[in-house]
Amino acid sequence: MAAAQMRTSASEFCGKGLQVRANRPMRAPRAVAAVVAEVQAEGQDDGERLRLNNLSPWPGSRRKAKRKGRGHAAGQGASCGFGMRGQKSRSGPGVRPGFEGGQMPLYRRVPKLKGIAGGMSAGKDKFVNINLRDIAENFEAGSEVSMESLQAKRVLSLSGKEKSLPLKVLGDGEVKVQVTVKAAAFSKSAKEKLEAAGCTVELLPMKEKWTRKAHEARMAASS
User: Residue 208 — pLDDT band, cuts 50, 70, 90?
Assistant: First the structure.
């Protein structure tokens, strides 16, 4: 009798029985099935399909924060839900934002990016850049290339902090006309190409960086 039962139980997990069980579709969990059924029923009753604009949280999944009282009169007991121990149960200021109990907080654990993405000044623009290609397309022979002429011809449209930045000429492109270029900086290739084309290169002085030592020297000289 026991041997027969063992044979029948073993036959359920081998041969055709195993193949039949493997081909059976998996049942969805009861909670998921109930949600789908209710959504389908609501859609049939209202005549409205499930869309992004009519989605809402499941009833009971989101609750408002409990409004805790102060003292016995609030009706929430002596501690009113704050508990009896810990900094959050005491009066006065609580835990500051970002504090994690003394361990290294998240805003100090994560790596920081270099440049402007990380808030550093190393990634900010220090010049307004134009290429030789822009000069060749917008200026004729004998004309003057400067910050003012570039803005007048709408080659540059500056706004905000860019208005206070100096001009720099880069070497992308070729210049075949003789022009006078006035800029605060030139790349090595741009300067070589302009001089080879017979253009006049004028290096404008850059704005002096403010330092306390230079400021005190100027103040002493003026007094």
Answer: confident
For residue range 21-43, what is the model confidence (pLDDT) as tens digits? 445 555 555 655 555 566 555 54
157-174 exposure pattern, b = at least 16 Cβ within 10 A, e = fewer: eeeeeeeebebbbbbeee
φ/ψ of 144, rounded to 5, equals -110, 130
How far from chain centre, in Å, is Cα 27? Answer: 42
Mind spelling out the 3-state secondary structure of 166-220?
Answer: CEEEECCCCCCCCCEEEECEECHHHHHHHHHCCCEEEECCCCCCCCHHHHHHHHH
Q: Does this model's pTM top 0.85?
A: no
pLDDT confidence tier of residue 62, bands split at 50, 70 and 90: very high
CB 146 within 8 A of CB 182: yes
Contact 172, 132 (CB under 8 A): yes
For the segment 145-173, the average pLDDT, to the nearest whole number, is 92
Question: What confidence tens digit (pLDDT) does each residue in 91-102 have?
Answer: 888 899 999 989
Residue 29 pLDDT = 57
